[in-house]
Each structure stands twice: as structure tokens, then as C-alpha cells.
Write a structure and sequence with these properties.
Helices cover 48% and strands 16% of the residues. It is of the alpha+beta class.
Length: 403
């Protein structure tokens, strides 16, 4: 019997600490609802869960982006619906003016309305906006960077020594670069062959760099012509201004479209060029009319379709038919994109829901199971406390020996 070291008390204290720590962890999980509250709880599970959370939040935001895209499409399509109505009225005016039962005063009135309707189409195209961005004035079109000069492959014509015959379109390697043989080259001495680099790229070699090299076992004696490769050069003044809807949780998951210029001149129902007649004249496809402009400046005068004559009215019908077809095509495109975006939204929401369920399995605590664990640890903690009292009282028995 010893009193300096109470081993029973130390063991009981250790068990009490373990039970208390386990009970604390259970309480933390029960109070937060998560079985992973810090990396120490489950390092791998935390990493997996955080990746899933990134995807879930990205998917939810992508769904919002797609919904905003639908709103943008609907805004443009609604404006074009009005343009359709205006064009139908313009066609009606042209048909009405095409009959000779109209007096000149009647046709003047019809021409005046034609001008005002042309002006309204310009106004709609110039002022329709979504989130402060004009979408029907041609500023949101796919102006892809144009190439000033295309990439050109290096070409050279070489004189070869006697050796292996080269066949047309055969691929060979010279100075570390792959070439395609232009035409058959005989195995005779001084055979000439034209080579074109397989990949078009800029090179630093000159024709002298090839003399003396081996080509399929044949020495290059001379280079009679050499054209260095050239990289493609791009006109930086133009760019892609089409609209991209980011509809995924990750990089470059997009749906793009363009909003074309839907003003009168772009539709072909107004002009400042050929076929324009002077004010008061009845010749030409278009006629100068007061108060017809491009919707942004009254000084930039445009011209409405000339329906002041039977011939002009008949021509106007054909022109308006083409304009109606353009608007119809654009509206059809918007409708198709809207349908695609709506399917995308459904898919994103379903994916986010399924991934949330998967993330819940990794991170959320099973309350029933954890409550059982907490109850067990709580009982062990209370038992350890009771046993610690007993263990601490045992050294007092040594006093009986000292009496």
C-alpha cells in the first residue's frame, strides 16, 4: 500500500478525461448539426465537403445567371414583337398605297405614317436596354477579331544528292522540323524537291542553314528557294462583343448569343445610299421624309420606304417582307436560346440538389446516432467521476496502519 502515487486515481482521471472529451465532441456535433466542424474531425471528409460546397454555390449562381439570361432574351424578344407589329402595319400601308384608287393626298398621308413607323423602329432598336446595356443597336454582336494575314508555313525547294526516292505527300524531317514532300523526287543526283512545313509557324532559319544537312539519307546540296514561315497577325481593333451567359460552376461553361442590329437601316427599310430620291420626288426605293432619323440624333437623317407611287409601294412590300423575315429569324433564335436556358436552369437545380444531398452525407451529423454516443459518454463521465472519488479515498486507508 502506497500513498505517493495513486495509480488507481490516475487511471480513473485519464478515463474521465477521455469520456469528457468525447462528450464535448458529441455536444459540438449535436449543437452545430455537423459531424465535421474542424479539419481534425475528418481531414479527408472536410476537403471533399468544401469542394462540394464550391460546386453547389457555383451551380446555384449559374442558375441565377441563366435566369438573368432568360430575362435579357425576353426583353429583346418583347421589343422585336413590337417591331413585328410595326412592320405588319407598314406592309399594310404599302398594300393600301399600291392601288390607284388613292388620290395623291391619300398617298402623302400614308407616306407620312410610313416615316413615323420607320422612326419608331429606329427608336426601339436604339433604346432597348437590359441592365443599362443597349441590346438591339448592334453593339452586342460577334465581331470576332479578323486576320490581317493568315499563318503561312515555311516552304523551301532543295537540291538533293542521290539516294532514297521521295514520294509526293511523304512526311520527312529536316533540321528538327517535319515537312511534306510536294511531288515525287527521283533517287538520282541533283534531284529537286519542294518541302512545306507541316505546321505553319514563324521560323528563324535561313536557306543556308539547310545546306549539308541530311534528308532521308540524302544530302541537301543547295536550297534554290526559301520562304520563312509567318505567324498569323490579328486586327486588334475588332473583338467578340457577343453576350456570354456563364451557366456552369466551373470555368468557361458558357452559352453565348449575339443581339444583332435591329434598327431600320439594318432591316433594309431605311437607307442613306443608292435608291434614295430627293425631297418631294417620287422616284427611288426610299424617299427623304421629315423626322426620320436613326433614333439617336435628329441630324443623322435617314429615309423611309417610298410608297408615294404604285411602283414604289409594290417594291416596298417586297422590302418589308424581307424585313419581317429577318425579325422572325431573330425572334426564333431568341426563343430557341430561351428554351435552352430554361432546360439549363432545370439541370443546374437538379445537379445542385443531388450534390447537396451528397455533401450532407459527408458533413451532416446523424442526430440519433450522435445522441446515443453522447449518452454513452455522459454515463461514462459520471461513472469515472464516481470512481475517482473512490480512488482518491483509498490512500486514507493507510492511516489505519499508523494508529
Amino acid at each position: 500500500m502506497v500513498i505517493a502515487h495513486n495509480i488507481s486515481a490516475l487511471n480513473t482521471y485519464k478515463s474521465l478525461g477521455i469520456a469528457g472529451g468525447s462528450a464535448d465532441k458529441s455536444m459540438e456535433k449535436l449543437s452545430s448539426g455537423y459531424k465535421i466542424n474542424k479539419a481534425a474531425d475528418d481531414a479527408a471528409g472536410l476537403s471533399i465537403s468544401e469542394k462540394m460546397r464550391s460546386q453547389i454555390r457555383g451551380l446555384n449562381q449559374a442558375s441565377t445567371n441563366a435566369s438573368n439570361g432568360v430575362s435579357m432574351i425576353q426583353t429583346a424578344e418583347g421589343a422585336l414583337n413590337e417591331e413585328h407589329s410595326i412592320l405588319q402595319r407598314m406592309r399594310e400601308l404599302a398594300v393600301q398605297s399600291a392601288t390607284d384608287t388613292n388620290a395623291s393626298e391619300d398617298r402623302e398621308a400614308l407616306q407620312s405614317e410610313m416615316a413615323q413607323l420607320t422612326n419608331e423602329i429606329n427608336r426601339i432598336g436604339s433604346t432597348t436596354e437590359f441592365n443599362g446595356m443597349k441590346i438591339l443597336d448592334g453593339s452586342k454582336t460577334n465581331k470576332v477579331a479578323t486576320t490581317e494575314s493568315a499563318a503561312a508555313a515555311e516552304t523551301l525547294t532543295v537540291t538533293l544528292g542521290a539516294g532514297t526516292k521521295l514520294d509526293a505527300n511523304q512526311r520527312v524531317t529536316l533540321n528538327g522540323r517535319q515537312y511534306k514532300v510536294g511531288a515525287d523526287a527521283a533517287a538520282t543526283d541533283n534531284a529537286s524537291v519542294t518541302l512545306t512545313a507541316v505546321i505553319a509557324e514563324k521560323t528563324v532559319e535561313t536557306k543556308d542553314d539547310y545546306v549539308g544537312l541530311s534528308l532521308e539519307g540524302r544530302e541537301v546540296k543547295a536550297v534554290t528557294s526559301f520562304t520563312a514561315g509567318k505567324d498569323a497577325t490579328v486586327d486588334a481593333a475588332t473583338k467578340d462583343d457577343s453576350v456570354y451567359f456563364h451557366v456552369g460552376a466551373n470555368s468557361n461553361q458558357v452559352i453565348n448569343t449575339e443581339f444583332k442590329d435591329m434598327r431600320a437601316r439594318a432591316l433594309g427599310i431605311s437607307s442613306t445610299g443608292s435608291g434614295v430620291s430627293a425631297a418631294g420626288k417620287n422616284d427611288g426605293v426610299f424617299v427623304e421624309t421629315a423626322n426620320v432619323n436613326n433614333g439617336t440624333s435628329s441630324t443623322n437623317t435617314e429615309h423611309s420606304l417610298n410608297i408615294s407611287t404604285r411602283e414604289g409601294a409594290n417594291t416596298a412590300i417586297e422590302v418589308i417582307d424581307k424585313a419581317i423575315k429577318r425579325v422572325s429569324n431573330e425572334r426564333s433564335k431568341y426563343g430557341a436560346i430561351q428554351n435552352r436556358l430554361e432546360y439549363t436552369i432545370n439541370n443546374l437545380n437538379t445537379t445542385a440538389e443531388n450534390m447537396t444531398a451528397a455533401e450532407s452525407t459527408v458533413r451532416d451529423v446523424d442526430m440519433a446516432s450522435e445522441m446515443m454516443e453522447f449518452t454513452k459518454n455522459n454515463i461514462l463521465q459520471q461513472a469515472a467521476q464516481a470512481m475517482l472519488v473512490q480512488a482518491n479515498s483509498r490512500p486514507q486507508q493507510a492511516l489505519q496502519l499508523l494508529r
